[in-house]
Every structure is written in structure tokens, then in C-alpha cells.
Design goal:
Blueprint (H helix, E strand, L loop, with lengths): L10 H23 L3 H21 L5 H17 L1 H19 L10 H16 L1 H20 L9 H28 L3 H20 L9 H28 L8 H30 L3 H17 L2 H6 L1
Helix pairs in contact: 1-2, 1-6, 2-3, 2-4, 2-8, 3-6, 4-5, 4-9, 7-8, 7-10, 7-11, 8-9, 9-10
């Protein structure tokens, strides 16, 4: 089955199906993380983000359920954040080396990378990771049992309004975060923009048969923006670690080059992300989702053969 709402079928059943599939896949990755945590934790967190994006999309249709489950999977993701971040920091070093090959020649970032690998091994081989995986698994299994309590409007007009409202809220969040990132440029502003962009990209997938305009090009642009914002987030996290007092990344003589490359990368990524986000989220969220609501009402009310063809 796909990560896409089928307008020919009842909305409650479709959302239950997709949510169960995403949490089921998250559980699969959690099991794999016991022996291969580096990539499995990342894949698990991606599935949790997909589930939370779905819950945000239909939140107005069953607020109690969606808020409870969203918080549940947010807590699960937080359990896995530390071990996943350890891997992301190593990947950031590798991206910096690839982006600035001349500056990082002669293994200029090698000492920092070695420390990060040692830290990753400590986190992945300790008892803390196993405990986190166990707690996350239990929470996801409990969440699977609760999916059957979700109840959304099934009348076409009401269901369309639920979907349009969920999409509109996320677009508003993206527009607000873009304005703040452009004016203040704080790390939290870009992080909020990243989360909104990621959620919007997932909404495009979920609403692929209902979105009023062709989404292929937009989805590609949103995905690319999300990746660059993710790279920026990792750069900002590493920069914060570099400025911390405990010298986690090493003494100043080992991190001088890293500090220089982080600053250059941050500047480039911020400029690129702001330009792309302005193109994607510059339009009025209300105007965009008004068209979505109209098309969704038509498609959800149409006979199956007509909805399939639209």
C-alpha cells in the first residue's frame, strides 16, 4: 500500500491504514537498530515523522486522538535523538570535507572525526541504547492498538475541510518560520522552517490525488529544501557543540579548521534555503488550500471511477 490517501475510500479507514503501516515500519527499523543502529535509527525516526505529519493533516477531525498520538511519537523520537545525532555529526564532517576539499586536505578534520566516531561507539554500545529501543518499541506497539479509536468525518465536505485545514496550518507555520528566519536568522527559526517544510512535503505525498495543481516539481523542490535545511541543522548543532565548554570535539588546535568551515557552510546554506523557501512558501496559505478544499470536495464526492481519473 502507499503513503497516499485514496479519495475513493472512507477517510477514517485510509488514515488508520497509513498510520498502521508507518508505525509498523518504525517497529521493523527499531528491531534492526539493535544490531545496525547507524541507519536503522534514522529510518525509524523518518517513519515517526511521517506518522506525525499524517496526524497533523487530520488533526481538526479528531483533535483528542491526534494530539495524544502526536505527543506519543514525539516522545519516542526524542528517545532515539541522541544516538542518531552521533551519526549525523560524523556525516556532517564528511559533507564538509566533500564541500571544501582543498581546505580539508591532509586529513584536516581527521582528529575531530575520530573523536565523533568514538563517541558514536560509546552511545551505540552502551545499555542506554537498548533501553531506549525497548521503551520506543513498547510505545509504538501500544500506539498500534489505539489506531482503531480514530474517528474522522466521512461526509465529503467535512472530510475535505479537515484535509484543507491541516494543509493550511502547516503552510502557515512554514510562512511564519520563513519570515522569522529571514529577519532574525536564529537557529530555532531555521529548525522550525525545516520541520514545516518536511511536513508539507509529506502532505503533498498524502494528498497526491487531491492537490489542485501538479505536485511532482513542487515535491522535488520541497524535498531538496528539506535536505539542505537538514544539513544546516547539523552544521548549527556542531557549531553549538564547538562553542560548549567541555571541548567535546577536541582542543582548539584541532577544531580551528572546523570552526572556519562551519561558518562558511552556514552562510551558504542559509542563503540558499531562504531563497528556495521564499519561492515555495511565498503564496498565501489560505489561497492555496482554498483550491485544495474545492478539489477535495469534488473528488471525495465523485463516483469511484471519476475520482480515480482525476
Amino acid at each position: 500500500m502507499s503513503f497516499r490517501i485514496d479519495p475513493r475510500l472512507p477517510l477514517t479507514g485510509e488514515v488508520r491504514r497509513i498510520l498502521a503501516e508507518e508505525i509498523g515500519k518504525a517497529l521493523h527499523h527499531l528491531d534492526a537498530a539493535r544490531s545496525r543502529p547507524e541507519q536503522a535509527l534514522h529510518k525509524c525516526r523518518k517513519r515517526l515523522k511521517s506518522a506525525r505529519a499524517l496526524l497533523r493533516l487530520v488533526r481538526s477531525g479528531d483533535e483528542t486522538f491526534c494530539e495524544t498520538e502526536n505527543q506519543c511519537y514525539r516522545n519516542v523520537a526524542a528517545l532515539l535523538a541522541g544516538p542518531r545525532e552521533a551519526t549525523a555529526l560524523i556525516e556532517t564532517i564528511d559533507r564538509l570535507a566533500a564541500s571544501f576539499p582543498k581546505e580539508s586536505a591532509d586529513d584536516g578534520l581527521g582528529a575531530v572525526r575520530d573523536r565523533l566516531i568514538a563517541r558514536q561507539h560509546e552511545l551505540h554500545e552502551g545499555t542506554g541504547l537498548e533501553a531506549a529501543i525497548g521503551a520506543a518499541t513498547a510505545a509504538c506497539e501500544e500506539g498500534l492498538h489505539r489506531i482503531g479509536t480514530l474517528a474522522l468525518p466521512e461526509q465529503p465536505e467535512q472530510a475535505a475541510d479537515v484535509l484543507a485545514e491541516g494543509a493550511r496550518v502547516t503552510l502557515r507555520r512554514a510562512r511564519k518560520a520563513l519570515d522569522k528566519a529571514g529577519s532574525r536568522g536564529a537557529a530555532d527559526d531555521f529548525h522550525d522552517l525545516r520541520k514545516a517544510a518536511k511536513t508539507h512535503g509529506m502532505h503533498l505525498s498524502l494528498l497526491g490525488r487531491l492537490w489542485p495543481t501538479p505536485i511532482k516539481a513542487r515535491r522535488k523542490a520541497v524535498d531538496e529544501l528539506g535536505e539542505r535545511l537538514g544539513d544546516l541543522h547539523d552544521v548549527l548543532v556542531m557549531h553549538a557543540l564547538l562553542e560548549a565548554d567541555d571541548q567535546l570535539l577536541g582542543p582548539p588546535e584541532d577544531t580551528k579548521l572546523l570552526a572556519k568551515l562551519l561558518k562558511r557552510s552556514e552562510k551558504q546554506l542559509k542563503k540558499s534555503c531562504l531563497a528556495s523557501a521564499a519561492e515555495l512558501f511565498g503564496d498565501s496559505p489560505k489561497r492555496s488550500t482554498r483550491k485544495l478544499a474545492r478539489k477535495a470536495r469534488d473528488d471525495l464526492a465523485a463516483p469511484p471511477e471519476e475520482a480515480a481519473a482525476s
